[in-house]
């Protein structure tokens, strides 16, 4: 791996809080793991999660150790970011990611990869299908079939109930409302075309899907569906890993970093970096 050019006036490694406004005027909050590189990896969390969950923190730290800057952030309605939590929001979360990419493009950073865990995996794939300006995408434990997994959260009769009441409140074990699912947000999920999006990702974009063989949240079969529908795709199954890779963090990070570095040919001067941005 060639040495990366440095950013002027940045000294040493540091973690920096960065805020970016999305297209709805909401403030998205993230943490930049600054290594002095112009190259940057952006990391998206999953459903009702945040930038501070273990997979996101460990992945950012692993890139940092390799001298690659990383940015983990909270999608709107999650963590520290503004906005209200919505059950669906798949396409809107891809647009949140767009706001982050554009922010760092304005700072003349080169987006080396976008990485998403669980629902964040869907966000990075939707991004790749729509904007086509990032050439390395990593989908960790993403769900291909968005019709599955709903009954487990909303109950077997969710379609009838939401038609009748217009919403379903999801409660915790103590009966407290955790979040509300509106008919609109449910339909957002059910009308998100994962297959069509995957087939729209250009062949120039390298996609890696990583899944745990013991994932009880999203079945490992979904990883195989991504493989059937993305043209330039690799699948990596981590044996024994659960949905969050609880006991397999090091293995997950190793696979992710290696995939990014496999074709990570860094330019040697800021001017050649600028050229690489122009041709993306």
TrEMBL record:
**Domain Serine aminopeptidase S33 as annotated: residue spans:** 39-148
Domain of life, per UniProt, equals Eukaryota
Q: List the Pfam families hit by this protein, alphabetically.
A: Hydrolase_4
List, alphabetically, the SUPFAM superfamilies matched.
alpha/beta-Hydrolases (SSF53474)
Which PANTHER family does the UniProt entry name for this protein?
ALPHA_BETA-HYDROLASES SUPERFAMILY PROTEIN (PTHR42886:SF38), RE40534P-RELATED (PTHR42886)
- What's this protein's name? Serine aminopeptidase S33 domain-containing protein
